[in-house]
């Protein structure tokens, strides 16, 4: 776990980015219906990841600000 102020800042940024992006990938996959297909989420295409990156780009900043309150 982070001990210094700099480490806490980097940890907060990395956690905000990964959690936001991960949840957006999951939500986009469900909206595209990959959870209902045979094989489930292993059938996801690159379009899901690109769409999640576009959607989460502005949310990462909001998540970082809220997590540091």
How is the topology of this model organized?
Layout: H1 5-32, H2 46-56, H3 59-67
Helix pairs in contact: 1-2, 1-3
Strand content: under 5%
Radius of gyration: 15 Å
Total beta strands: 0
The global form is: elongated
Class computed from helices, strands and strand pairing: mainly alpha
Report on the structure:
This protein is mostly helical. The chain has helices at residues 5-32, 46-56, 59-67.
List the main descriptive attributes of the protein structure presented here.
69 residues; mainly alpha; 70% helix
In short:
The chain has 69 residues and is an all-alpha fold. It has helices at 5-32, 46-56, 59-67.
